[in-house]
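#onboarding

Welcome to the new folks! Below is a worked example of what a typical request in this channel looks like: someone posts a single protein sequence, and someone else replies with the predicted structure as tokens. Don't worry about understanding the tokens yet, we'll cover that in week two.

Example request:
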Amino acid sequence: MDRFAECHVITAGHEGGWSNHKDDPGAATMLGVTQAKFTEMLKKWGKPNRSVRTITRDEALRIYREEYWDKCGAPTLFPGVDLAVYDASVNSGIGRGRKWRDQTVSIKDAVSRVKAICKARLSFMQSLKIWKTFGKGWGRRVADIEVKGVAMALKALGASTADIKVRAQAESKAAAATAAVGKKTEKAVASGGGVSTGGAATVAAETGINTEMLLLLGALGVALIAALIIINVRRRANDERSTAYAALASEAV
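Example response:
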């Protein structure tokens, strides 16, 4: 079964129309296709170069299918996993999409694999300097892809609409609970004026930063700043996941 159309409509919803943001490495972009990629494909098709702003939807669809859907291996992947890998390839590059696909190949449960791919992708995005500019939109996009990918996987595994709704509600509550812990820790760290032994253990659990290092650097304030940034980013990510899963739970699948 050809799932390109079903998956691409979701990706296309995040790509939008014309864009030429000064901080976007892709520069001039139309329907998610950069000028560089359009120029490359026009040459490949034996056509004269022109502005990407004039790209037709048929041309864009052909590029997405040939250069991303097929090349990332989506046609061979389980429903949901195909969406996660495809959207990651479009948004972060075909090389990274394949990397996250291959890194998760040992995960046999499709739902868990979708989550793992989205987690790795979000972690990469959060490491980029332009996260400050595009992070909010990226976080929302990855959450949406995770939720829709999970729903696709569950449906392919035989889950009913009711089952998916219940699962989505549980996922939303779990993400909200994790976000709440992060928010509480964030406030405690911001107002604590230091990191106590007990507080350091909590922060370490939230951020992955070594407890002893937090205590060592806490007096200098360096650890506090680093911890706050990490906690804030993770809390926001779980807020987006909670919202996206709640939306799924409230609609017919």
